[in-house]
Every structure is written in structure tokens, then in C-alpha cells.
């Protein structure tokens, strides 16, 4: 019997990490995949990235429009309520055998709440990880609602078990974001620099800086400090606009002040393929994206991780952590540029998460007792 899987996606980030795995699931003879698309995917201000999903040929089982330009925590919470109502309707209509969720965003929490009330088994990817910001309790909340866990590392698996999850339901699969990185075809630094109008002989930084809910009021000033420190180190900067969380607008405004500077190129969105190409050739990454914590080590790219957004998360050796002040960022940039590229090594897995996940989804037990969840301690 073919199992029907629904994956919920609300941002370019989660979809990019999962695209190769979703394609593997869709191609599995024992699985049928549908995507429920919401959030930033449907908003032209954030690149209308649902078009990427459509071009990939993946089946879209439902769309849930929601207001995503939330400048406050209250607006973010109301967005979760909108998604909860929409997801409940779609899950009732589609009747999936299980719901697949990634990470720690509000749409994933809404999906977990809807699914558990409809007696639909939940599989959670990237549970058991820490960050020390609002993302961490949301991630753990999803884990407590989930019935199976696909952890990225042994450390995350052990933490889930200490949280009371049954060991037999927690499997290490690695990070989906590593799938295909090492062997994907890539353009040269010279080609990418030429396309951006950069000098390939001078330092190039890939910048991704997102707001932290608890520190939303200082997000714009922190972005300005980042840009100033990068300029002082003569870095050319490819900067992606942030996600739609509280504080995001002030980051966008700070970045806009640099538009027109030939050394700073600001883009709304890069496809996963192009983003990875830049990650592979940039002299460093800077900001607070999980891609710097997880994927960048596969290329040995130095990372200056700014502020608390990835606090306490398991690191690879290429990450330099700094507070969000101009002086501290400058110190981190100097160390990263002096270090150069690291030997590629990644604690987040073997790059085969797509195979592990699709095989588990097709074979794991889904009998009624799976839904009778209780803490194992």
C-alpha cells in the first residue's frame, strides 16, 4: 500500500534544505508526496518562491495565504493561527498517512498541532537541537508533539531521548541540507564574481542575517554594524534579504542604505543551487543563518556567526562566534580571513539523508499504538 506523505513548507530556507529529499520521496514507489505551501512562498516581496516548487514538478496539495510581514511577535502569533486553521482543513481533505515537518518555524508548529488533533502521525526532522532563542522552545514543542524523530546528529538524538522520547522512535539520518553538496556541479568563483560585478581577486562575503524575536528592536543597528565591519575589511558583499519575522523590516531598511554601493549586491532570493555555488567560492559567510552552522563546513568555508540566533547549536570547526557589535564582528572577520578555507568535515552527516528518510518513511510502523504517545521517562 502506498503511503501518502504531506510536507509543510513556509520559506525558501526549509524548502531549499529539503528539495533533494522531497524529490527522493516523490520518486519512491511506496510513497506519494504532497506539499502544503504557505508563508513567504506566496508573497512576491520574498521572491514568490512557490514558483520554484512548481518548476520542480512537486505536487502542491494546498496553499494557505497568510500575512508574513509581521513586524511584531503578536503578528507572528496571529499568522500561526491563520496557518493552523488552513492546515486543519487541508489535512482533513487530504487524509495523509503522516505529516513531515522540519525544524522550528511557526508554520511547522501549527502543522504539528493540527496533525496530532486529527490523529495523523508526525515525523520531525532536525529535532533535539539548541539555539537559546525563541526557535529552541518552538523546536522542542514540535518534538513533543511528534511521533517519530529524524535527528541530524548523535548529540541531538541523545537530547531527544533525555527529553522523554522513545529511543526506538529516534533515528539519526543526518542533515537534509547536505544532500548533494559535495558532488553538485558548480560554476567558478570568476564566473560568479563576474555575474555580480565583483573583483574575484578581492575578498567576497556571503551575508545572511535574520532577526531574533527577543532582540527585534536592535536588528537594524546590528545589520549596519555588520556592513560597516565588512566595508572596513574591504569585503565585497552578496547579501540576502531576511525572513519575515519581527525585526526583519529594519534589517531590510539597513541593507537598502547600501544599495548602489558597487561592493554590496543585495538580492531578495537565490535558488538553492546558486546559493550553494556562492557558499563554495566565497571567502567567508557572515550573519546568523543555520546554513553557516551546517552546510558551510562541507566546503570548509569560514563562518562568522553573529549574535545569539544559533547559540548553543552544535558547531563544526569553521565557525567563529561573535557578539553583534561592530568591533567584535571586525575581530571575527579578521580571524576568518586569516584562517582561510578549512579542511572539509561535517558533524551533520554523510550527505545521504534523502535516502535514509525516504526508506524510513516507507517502512516505519504506523499502527494505531504509534499515536498513543507518552514520555519514556
From TrEMBL:
Signal peptide: none annotated. The lineage of its organism: Bacteria, Pseudomonadati, Pseudomonadota, Alphaproteobacteria, Sphingomonadales. Residues 24-361 form the UDP-N-acetylglucosamine 2-epimerase domain. InterPro entries: UDP-GlcNAc_Epase, UDP_GlcNAc_Epimerase_2_dom, WecB-like. The keyword Disulfide bond does not apply. Keywords: Glycosidase, Hydrolase. GO terms for molecular function: hydrolase activity, hydrolyzing O-glycosyl compounds. It holds the Pfam family Epimerase_2. Its EC number is 3.2.1.183. This is UDP-N-acetylglucosamine 2-epimerase (Hydrolyzing). It comes from the Bacteria. One of its GO terms (biological process) is UDP-N-acetylglucosamine metabolic process. The keyword Ribonucleoprotein does not apply. It comes from Sphingomonas gei. It is an enzyme of class 3 (hydrolase).
